[in-house]
Each structure stands twice: as structure tokens, then as C-alpha cells.
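Researcher: Sequence recovery benchmark, item below. Answer with residues only.
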């Protein structure tokens, strides 16, 4: 079924979430068992208020995430997606992930809805730099400002260019595939609905149920790595 939908589609858009990177050793946020937010309150750590009022905790939290990120690598699923972009089977990737793994694996048309943890920028002058500064805890900019991670914190707007690209691609999609997202965070969780409204086929590949499963044309509650490897084998036949 997924192979047929994939082969018939003319404009396939993928929305990826943290479930895409758990097979690279990075925890997701809301998995029932070991999701990151089971231990900590995201609003307490990944928010502008936390950056302002709990700065030491904020720095420790992002230093830990950046250390894990720098020790991890994209898994095979990311390379399949990049291959499919090169041969025209995938048109665009909308990602909620901040690990940069899609680009690292070779995907070019990627819209990072929640920014990136691969670099930091000064909250005053905007100067950007490597996330390595958090490893060395060099968080003060020469201008006196604070170097913050390039992610979209809770309470901050999504980058306008990312939203614009996501809307355009969702409108063009005739196949919209969700990979590893609980679809609990907006506006990312609006794009599957928009695609469906525009007449696209909707596929959700996620280990746990999502509240959007009932509107999908196909739901696969399996590991993404296995699903994409199977699709790659079928697609190469
Ligand atoms: N294969 C398939 N599904 C998986 C796998 C896997 N290997 N690993 C995890 N999952 C599923 C989990 O069951 C979970 O439902 O991926 C989903 C990940 O959901 P979340 O942890 O909520 O991550 P995500 O949807 O990307 O979160 C969106 O919330 O906290 C914010 O900014 C953060 O971008 C993030 C946003």
C-alpha cells in the first residue's frame, strides 16, 4: 500500500518529528516510556521565560542536548529520504527536528520549522556561531549579549520563511507522509490536515497512535527505520 501511494504520487512532502531520530540515539519528547518531557517540563526549560529566569538550568539543558547531538549521526532512514529527493520521489521535507540530520544526510529542500540546534546566535546583535560554544560554556557574546541556541523556544514564533515554504509545499502535495511525530504541537500539526483538505493522500508512520490517525489514508504503527528500508527495497525493484 505505501509503495503504491509512493509510486503514484507526483509531489510527496514529508513532515518529520523526533521519532525520526530516536534510531540515532536521540530521545524524543513524548514517547510514553522514555520521552524527554516525561522527566522535565518543556515550558520550564525550552522557553524564553526559562532562558530569562532559569539561565543556568537553560544552559545546562541545551549543553546536554548539544553534546548528545554532536555524538549522534543520521540513521539509514535519513539517507533513504535524501536518495528519494535526488531521484524526484520526495519533493520537500518539513521537519520539527533541530538536529540538522536531514541536511547532514544530503536532503536539500528542508524547512526547519523549529530552527536548529546546530548553531547559536546572540540575543542582542544576532551574530551566529557554532553550537560548540555551549560545550565550552562560552555563552557571552563580545557585544555583551547572550548566545542562545538557534531553536524556536516555546512561546516564540516559527520563522516566517519556514512557514511560507511549508504552506506552499503542503498545497502542492498529493502525498503527505508524517514520520515520527505525535502531532501535538502546532502549527506543524496543521499541515497534515491542510494537505488532506487539499486532496492529498495522508500517511502516518508512528510507533504510537496520534489523534490524526482516523483521518489518514494509511497508518503504520511500526519503527520508521524498518518502514523506510522496506519501501527502499520495494522502490528499487
Ligand atoms: N519509529 C516510529 N515512531 C517513533 C520512533 C520510531 N523509531 N521513535 C519514536 N517514535 C514516535 C513516538 O511514539 C512519538 O509519538 O515518534 C513520536 C515523537 O513524538 P514527540 O516526542 O512528541 O516529538 P515531535 O512530534 O517531533 O514533537 C514536536 O514538540 O517539544 C516540541 O519542539 C519540540 O519539535 C518538537 C515538537
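Model:
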Amino acid at each position: 500500500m505505501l509503495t503504491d501511494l509512493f509510486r503514484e504520487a507526483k509531489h510527496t512532502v514529508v513532515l518529520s518529528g523526533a521519532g525520526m531520530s530516536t534510531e540515532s540515539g536521540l530521545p524524543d519528547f513524548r514517547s510514553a516510556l522514555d520521552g524527554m518531557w516525561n522527566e522535565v517540563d518543556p515550558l520550564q526549560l525550552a522557553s524564553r521565560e526559562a532562558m530569562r529566569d532559569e539561565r543556568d538550568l537553560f544552559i545546562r539543558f541545551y549543553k546536554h542536548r548539544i553534546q548528545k547531538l554532536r555524538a549522534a549521526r543520521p540513521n539509514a532512514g535519513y539517507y533513504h529520504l535524501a536518495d528519494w529527493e535526488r531521484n524526484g520521489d520526495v519533493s520537500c521535507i518539513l521537519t520539527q527536528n533541530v538536529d540538522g540530520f536531514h541536511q547532514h544526510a544530503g536532503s536539500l529542500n528542508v524547512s526547519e520549522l523549529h530552527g536548529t540546534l546546530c548553531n547559536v546566535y546572540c540575543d542582542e546583535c544576532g551574530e551566529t556561531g557554532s553550537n560548540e560554544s555551549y560545550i565550552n560554556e562560552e555563552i557571552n557574546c563580545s557585544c555583551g549579549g547572550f548566545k542562545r541556541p538557534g531553536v524556536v523556544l516555546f512561546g516564540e514564533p516559527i520563522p516566517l520563511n519556514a512557514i511560507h515554504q511549508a504552506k506552499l509545499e503542503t498545497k502542492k502535495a498529493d502525498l503527505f507522509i508524517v514520520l515520527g511525530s505525535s502531532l501535538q504541537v502546532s502549527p506543524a500539526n496543521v499541515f497534515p490536515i491542510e494537505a488532506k483538505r487539499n486532496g492529498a493522500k495522508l500517511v502516518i508512520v508512528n510507533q504510537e497512535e496520534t489523534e490524526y490517525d482516523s483521518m489518514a489514508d494509511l497508518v503504520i504503527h511500526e519503527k520508521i527505520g524498518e518502514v523506510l528500508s522496506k519501501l527502499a527495497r520495494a522502490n528499487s525493484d
